[in-house]
């Protein structure tokens, strides 16, 4: 069986990190006897420049046929002047919606070698292993109506709609319970049910789904408390499940606990486990083209792709072990470097992971 993989390098550092991840993917596939067919496409700013839309028709067709997609990052100052609906980031929202990628899995694992890179004290984060499950295709980022309008009194006002259907809450909660059952059996649902009706419903539905998963211990936290607890005592958490906007913010907070946004992979899955895999970071225009970007988040995204979409857990483990071995040798890109430590570039880090895999 041949797995068809679509690569969408995107903008900024995207092409640099994806090319290292591609080498790792090809090497690991050969080593584990997996047959892959790799195609590249345009998404984001580069797609606007070449094809006139952030998620052009050609990419849409490739994406719908792929078993899994590896994305770099999209966006950058070149396109910041465009209207909101035409910007590169809309391409990302469009592909998530088109493929119905309703679940975003963001592990925040602290490799022990990097405990000193965290902004928290090492003892608070050493051994950290959290999974944040974020709803990705609903909530306020997609709710209608939305826009900027002129009021009767002539003043402008911006408005968005925060809406969740019961079925949307149910499917993300079900997935989160299933993932928690395979881990430490603890799930925390994050909402703002003291203020927002939409998350009152969220809490009610999560409680209903909990009855079908008695092996998992469920608790609920308000989002402000969750943010506080994440930086106070992050190791108390196993799996967190939350809506789109809260998940966006909390997963970046969790990113800092691990020391670098350059280390964090993510997966976005649909109901058939077809997925889009991407680093949590953006296109980092400040370091683009300088061989400075850390490719490990994208390489670890390849590991997630092997695990969740290609059903190749041994190959995924192999990549994660190789990354850990490279960190053991002291090799660091600038984002995770110790003050006086040696620093390598994107390509050299890719070389080291390949060497550790061999
Ligand atoms: P960013 O993640 O691109 O960068 C934040 C900081 O982290 C920068 O200092 C950057 O140099 C650093 N950084 C990020 N990734 C790194 C890596 N792999 N190695 C080393 N350092 C790294 O976030 P931002 O600056 O807020 O956004 C820049 C652009 O990216 C914007 O256009 C934004 O819209 C876009 N963006 C895209 C995505 C995505 O494609 N999924 C996500 C977030 C932001």
Model description:
This protein has helices at 14-31, 45-51, 57-65, 88-98, 122-125, 166-182, 197-210, 223-232, 244-257, 296-308, 313-328, 346-357, and strands at 2-10, 35-40, 68-73, 103-109, 129-135, 147-150, 156-159, 186-191, 217-222, 239-242, 265-269, 275-279. The protein is built from twelve helices and twelve strands. With 358 residues, the protein is α/β, with parallel strands linked by helices. The protein has two domains: 1-111 and 263-358, Isopropylmalate Dehydrogenase, CATH 3.40.718.10; 129-257, Isopropylmalate Dehydrogenase, CATH 3.40.718.10. The strands form two sheets. A ten-stranded mixed β-sheet has the order 2-1-3-12-11-4-5-10-8-9, with helices on both faces. A two-stranded antiparallel ribbon has the order 6-7. Residues 13, 17, 73-76, 89, 92, 261-262, 278, 281-287, 293-294, 297, 333, 335 line the site of nicotinamide-adenine-dinucleotide. Nicotinamide-adenine-dinucleotide (NAD) binds at residues 13, 17, 73-76, 89, 92, 261-262, 278, 281-287, 293-294, 297, 333, 335.
Helix and strand topology:
Elements: E1 2-10, H1 14-31, E2 35-40, H2 45-51, H3 57-65, E3 68-73, H4 88-98, E4 103-109, H5 122-125, E5 129-135, E6 147-150, E7 156-159, H6 166-182, E8 186-191, H7 197-210, E9 217-222, H8 223-232, E10 239-242, H9 244-257, E11 265-269, E12 275-279, H10 296-308, H11 313-328, H12 346-357
Parallel strand pairs: 1-2, 1-3, 3-12, 5-10, 8-9, 8-10
Antiparallel strand pairs: 4-5, 4-11, 6-7, 11-12
Helix pairs in contact: 1-10, 1-12, 6-7, 8-9, 10-11, 11-12
The chain binds nicotinamide-adenine-dinucleotide.
Nicotinamide-adenine-dinucleotide binds next to α4.
């Amino acid at each position: 069986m041949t797995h068809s993989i679509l690569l969408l390098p995107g903008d900024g550092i995207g092409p640099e990190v994806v090319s290292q991840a591609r080498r790792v993917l090809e090497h690991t596939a050969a080593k584990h006897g997996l047959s892959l067919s790799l195609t590249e496409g345009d998404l984001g700013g580069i797609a606007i420049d070449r094809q006139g839309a952030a998620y052009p028709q050609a990419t849409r067709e490739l994406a719908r046929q792929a078993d899994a997609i590896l994305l770099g990052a999209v966006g950058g100052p070149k396109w910041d002047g465009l209207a909101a609906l035409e910007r590169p980031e809309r391409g990302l929202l469009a592909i998530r919606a088109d493929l119905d990628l309703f679940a975003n899995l963001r592990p925040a694992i602290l490799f022990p070698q990097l405990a000193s890179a965290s902004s928290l004290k090492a003892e608070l984060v050493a051994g950290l292993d959290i999974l944040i499950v974020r709803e990705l295709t609903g909530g306020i980022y997609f709710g209608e109506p939305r826009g900027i309008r002129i009021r009767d009194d002539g003043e402008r006002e911006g408005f968005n709609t925060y809406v969740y259907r019961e079925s949307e809450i149910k499917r993300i909660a079900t997935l989160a319970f299933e993932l928690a059952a395979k881990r430490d059996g603890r799930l925390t649902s994050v909402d703002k049910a003291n203020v927002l009706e939409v998350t009152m419903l969220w809490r009610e539905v999560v409680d209903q789904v909990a009855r079908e998963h008695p092996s998992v211990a469920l608790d609920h936290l308000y989002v402000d408390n969750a943010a506080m607890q994440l930086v106070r005592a992050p190791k108390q958490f196993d799996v967190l499940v939350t809506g789109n906007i809260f998940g966006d913010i909390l997963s970046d907070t969790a990113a800092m606990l691990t020391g670098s946004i350059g280390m964090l992979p993510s997966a976005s899955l649909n109901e058939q486990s077809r997925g889009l895999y991407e680093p949590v970071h953006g296109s980092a225009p400040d370091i683009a083209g300088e061989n400075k970007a850390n490719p490990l988040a994208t390489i670890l995204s390849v590991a997630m792709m092997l695990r969740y979409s290609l059903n190749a857990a041994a190959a995924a483990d192999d990549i994660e072990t190789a990354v850990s071995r490279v960190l053991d040798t002291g090799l660091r890109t600038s984002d995770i470097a110790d003050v006086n430590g040696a620093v390598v570039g994107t390509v050299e880090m890719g070389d080291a992971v390949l060497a550790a895999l061999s």
